[in-house]
Amino acid sequence: MTEIALPSGTQTTAAAAASQARVRARYRAETRFKFYGLAAIAIAAVFLVVVLADIVVKGLPAFTQHWVRINVQVDPAEVDPQGTKKPEVIRSGDFAVLSRNALRAIFPDVTERADRRLLDGLLSSGAADNLRERVVADPSLIGKTIPVSLLLSDDADLYLKGQSTAIGRQAGRGVATPSATSGDVVITSTVADFAGELAGTKRVLSDLARAGRLEAERLRQSMRSLEAARASIAQGLADARAANDAPRIATFEARVKDYTGDIDSLNGKINDLETQAATRQARFNNTAGEENLDSSLPTLLIAINDGLVKVTRITANQVSGTALVPLQSTAAAAAGKWETVTYLTPEANRRVTDREVAWLEALRKRGASERNFNWGFFTSGDSREPELAGIRGALVGSALTLFVTLILCLPIGVAAAIYLEEFAPKNRLTEIVEVNINNLAAVPSIVFGLLGLAVFLNFIGFPRSAPLVGGLVLALLVLPTIIIASRAALKSVPPSIKEAALGVGASQQQAIFHHVLPLAMPGIMTGTIIGMAHALGETAPLLMIGMVAFIVETPSSISDAATVLPVQIFLWSDLPEIAFQAKTAAAIMVLLAFLFVMNGTAIILRKRFERRW
C-alpha cells in the first residue's frame, strides 16, 4: 500500500493542538488541586469553629453566679454568745442559721417543715461564707441587721440563667378574676385565654401516648427473645429429666424460673404502658374536654395580682390550682396585667420544683437576685458542690508541675543537644542515641506514665500525686522534643560564625557557648515553650501516677498532693451534676487560653529574634 504523507503544516498544527491540550489539562489539574486544598482548609476551619463555639457557649455561664441580696440579722446568740469578739470564736459561729432565717423572713407563709427545707435548699452550702468573713473582719456588726449577698445553689443558679427549662410567657387578653388569695384558687377569664395551653397539653399527651406505645413494642420484642430462650432451656430441662440427671435438672429449673420472672415483669410493664398510652390517647381525642395537669406534663403557672398560681385543671377560659405565692387581692386583673407562664419541661424531669420556681421568681421580682462575675471559679479549690468548685488548686498544681518540668528538661535537653551536635564523635553509638531520641518523641505518653509509676513511685518511693513526680514524668516526655528543637536551632547558625571565632583564637567551647549558643537561643526557647505547652495539656501520664485524686486544698510545695488542670477537666466531665458541664467547658477555655498564650509567645520570640543569614 502507498502511504499518504500529511503536509508539514498540518503535522505542526496537530502537534501544537495536542501540546495546548496537555497544557490546559495541567492547568485544570492545578486548579482542582488548589480547590481540594482550599476545601480541606475550609472543612478544618468549620470543624474548629464549631468545636470552639460549642465550648464557649457551654462555658460562658460558669463565669457568672447568682446571689440573693437580703438583710441578715447578726444574732449574738448564734455568733458570739459570750461577747468575746475574738475572731476564732466568731468564725465558729452558726452563720448558716442566720442566712436561712433571713431567707425565711421573706416568705413568712412558708411554715411547713418540708417546705422550709425546700426553701433552705435554694441557698448554697457555702452561702454563709461571705457573711462570716464580713463579721470576722468587723465584729461591730454583731447585733445589727446588714445587707448581705448569699450564694444560691447550683440548681437555682441554672434556673435563673434559663438553663433549667424553656419558658413561655403569654400576656392575658381578657379580664381574669381569681376566687381566693391563697390555698385553692379558681381563675376565670372573660375570653378563651387558656385555649392555647389546653391545645398544647393535648399535643403533649399525644406525644406521650406515642412514646409509650413505642416503648411497649420494644419491651415486647425483648420479651419474645426471653420466651425463645426459655423455650430452649425448657427443652434442655426435658432432656435432663429424661436422662434423670439431677444436677442438670436443678440448673435448668433455676434458669427457667429466672426467665419466667423476667418475662412476667416485662409483661406487667408492657400492660402498664399500653394502658397509660390508651388513656392519654383518649384524653387527646377529647379535644374540647378539660385537662388535669400532673408532674408528667408541662407546668402552667398564672402570675396575677403579685401572686403565682400553679394550675392543676384547665379549660379554655378557666383554670384551677394552688397558690404558690399568695395573691395580694381577689380583684379582677385587666388585660395585659396578668400572664400565663409555661415551663415546657415537666416538674418530674426538673431539679427545680414548682415551689422553688415560685420563690425564685418572687426574689427576681423583688430585685433581690443578682448575677455577678464568678471570682470563686479562679480563687477556690475543687468541691463536690458545683457552685463552690474552682480551679485554683489545679492552676497552682499545673504551675508547680511545669516548674519542675522546666528546671529539669531545659538544662538537660540543651546540654544533650550541644553535646550531640558539637562534641559527640560521629560513630555507631551516637547514631543509635540519635535514633532513640527521635523514637522517644513518638512514644505514647501513657508509657511515660507507666515508667513514672514503676520507677518514681514504686521503686524510689516519691510521694503520690505530687507535682514533683508529675514534673519528672513530664520532663521525660518533653525532653526528646527539646533536644530535637535545640539541635535544629544549633544547626541553623551558619558555620562561618564558629569558624570565625576559632580563627581568632577561641577554643571549641568558647566558640560554641559565646557565639553559637546565644544565636541559637531564640530557637531553643521556642522549642522549649512548645514542649511546655505539650506538657500542660497532658493527662494520661499524670493519671497513672495518681494525680487524679480529689484535691480540695491548694498545694504549697512540690511534695504536696495536687492535681493539674487537664486532670481537673477530666474529673469534672465525669460528674453527673448539670452545673459541672459548664464548669468543664469553662476550665477547657482557661486551658486553651494558656496554650494559645504559650504558642503565641513562641511565635513572637521566633519572629522577634529570627535572623536572615
Task: Write a concise keyword list for the protein shown above.
613 residues; alpha+beta; MetI-like fold; 3 domains; 3-stranded antiparallel sheet; 20 helices; extended
What are the SSEs and their pairings?
Elements lengths: L7 H52 L4 E10 L2 H4 L7 H5 L3 H12 L6 H8 L8 H9 L7 E7 L2 H7 L6 E5 L4 E3 L5 E6 L5 H48 L3 H40 L5 E2 L6 E6 L2 E8 L3 E8 L13 E5 L10 H13 L2 E5 L2 H4 L12 H32 L4 H13 L4 H15 L7 H26 L2 H9 L4 H29 L3 H5 L20 H9 L5 H31 L4
Antiparallel strand pairs: 1-2, 1-11, 3-10, 4-5, 5-9, 6-8, 7-8, 7-10, 8-9
Helix pairs in contact: 1-20, 8-9, 12-15, 12-17, 12-19, 14-15, 15-17, 16-17, 17-20, 19-20
What is the structure about, briefly put?
With 613 residues, this protein is an alpha+beta fold. Helices cover 61% and strands 11% of the residues.
What does this structure look like?
Strands 3, 4, 5, 6, 7, 8, 9 and 10 form an eight-stranded antiparallel β-sheet that branches. The mean pLDDT is 89. The chain has helices at 8-59, 76-79, 87-91, 95-106, 113-120, 129-137, 154-160, 195-242, 246-285, 354-366, 376-379, 392-423, 428-440, 445-459, 467-492, 495-503, 508-536, 540-544, 565-573, 579-609; strands at 64-73, 145-151, 167-171, 176-178, 184-189, 291-292, 299-304, 307-314, 318-325, 339-343, 369-373. Strand 7 (299-304) and strand 8 form a beta hairpin. It has three domains: 71-150, no CATH class; 165-350, no CATH class; 386-609, MetI-like (MetI-like fold, Orthogonal Bundle). By secondary structure, it is of the alpha+beta class. The two termini are 70 Å apart.
